[in-house]
Amino acid sequence: MIPDWERQRAFEISEASHTAEVRRFAAQLAKGAGFSESAAGSVAIATTELSTNLLKHASGGKIVVRPLADHSARGVEFARGVELLSLDRGAGIGNFTQCLRDGYSTAGSAGTGLGAIARLASELDVQTAPGKGTAVMARFWAGKLGGAPTDQIEVGAVCMPMPGEERCGDGWGYEPLADRCIFVLVDGLGHGLGAAEAAEQAVASVREHRTKAPAVIIEYAHDALRGTRGAAIAVAEVNFTQQVLRYCGIGNISATIVTGSGLRHLVSYNGIAGHAVRKISEFTYPWTADSLLIMHSDGLMSRWDLQAYPGLMQRHPSVIAGVLYRDFVRDRDDVTVLAAKEWR
Ligand SMILES: [Mn+2]
Fold first, then answer.
1. Number of folded domains in the chain?
2. Which pLDDT does position 109 carry in this prediction?
3. How far is the CA of 322 from the centre of ligand 1 (A)?
4. What is the rounded end-to-end Cα distance, in angstroms, of the chain?
5. Measured distance CA(335)–CA(318) in Å, rounded
6. CA 264 / ligand 1 centre spacing (Å)
7. How many angstroms separate the alpha carbon of residue 171 from the centre of ligand 1?
8. Coil, strand, or helix at residue 33?
């Protein structure tokens, strides 16, 4: 099976002809996820609308399209979907509430704006700031449309190969369990095919050993990565009942717990999983219902500051990951940024 992060794609939208390409890809993903013809049509319409908005209101931007899978508490996949993430660095939406009303368009055209997308999508979230730009997340689910989420945690991620590479040498995943959730983020050494193979092996190993403690999961991943190029890897376990986050990392993966009162950077040991590891040990941090977990590879600059984006902490993790990717991607490496928090 192709990992989700290999099927995530970013489309540069800078002229009208780009709309058809992203719409086609999103509709294909929807059909592959088991959407009916008309549900896939809704995804296509929303994609067109987002792309048109980027051209009309922001002089271009990006649309990231990725497949979604919602798990039950036992980790069984039960619903598939498609996420659209529109990212621009335009002027921002001045009157956001008005913009959500059907028929409203700041460019005064026949565009139905965000109102139409809100009606078509299962979930919609927006972050906009004057002069900084806008991020719109629209999610579509096959089947259980509008149904309650079974996961206790909301997760968003952007994972992209470096420009010019076909395969992504980063990988990520999460595994919801009864009272906790396991997250993994991995950066295969270098980039391209060899890095992608290491990332896939690592995530597969973490999934297999997901019920174990993070340090034990990392031990197994280290073992599974022998014979590959090696990788930086980190595993976080958020335990909802104990209100702690257990963390174990090797190499350059950045992880931070963000709360209203500040940041907590999580500690990884130096080394390359699969090759040279000096020490594997686990750290425990406090976790509360309003904590936000951010993990990223070194394809993202580490100087981000959520305080610079009023209200962003309260947005859906996909929007948070999207904004960080939009503003802090290095473009010289594969990049992954993952954000997660408990359902409000
Ligand atoms: Mn890297």
1. 2
2. 40
3. 18
4. 32
5. 15
6. 22
7. 11
8. coil
Domain harbouring 240, CATH code: 3.60.40.10
Query: Does any domain span residue 106?
Result: yes
Phi-psi region of 72 (alpha: psi -120 to 50; beta: other; left: phi over 0): beta
67 and 159 together in one domain = no
pLDDT tens profile 20-63: 999 999 999 999 999 999 999 999 999 999 999 999 988 899 99
Helices (H), the chain: 18-32, 37-57, 96-100, 113-120, 193-208, 214-224, 317-328
d(CA 336, CA 290) in angstroms, rounded, equals 23
Q: 179: CA distance to ligand 1 center in Å?
A: 32
pLDDT over 80 at 237, yes or no: yes
* Alpha-carbon separation of residue 258 from 71, 137, 205 (angstroms): 25, 21, 28
| Type of residue found at 181 | C
Find the domain containing 294 and state its range: 153-342
For the record, the structure tokens of 174 come out as 């999460």
Determine the distance separating the centroid of ligand 1 and the alpha carbon of 69, expressed in angstroms: 25
Q: Measured in angstroms, how far is the CA atom of residue 336 from the centroid of ligand 1? A: 9
Boundary of a domain, candidates 113, 141, 169 = 141
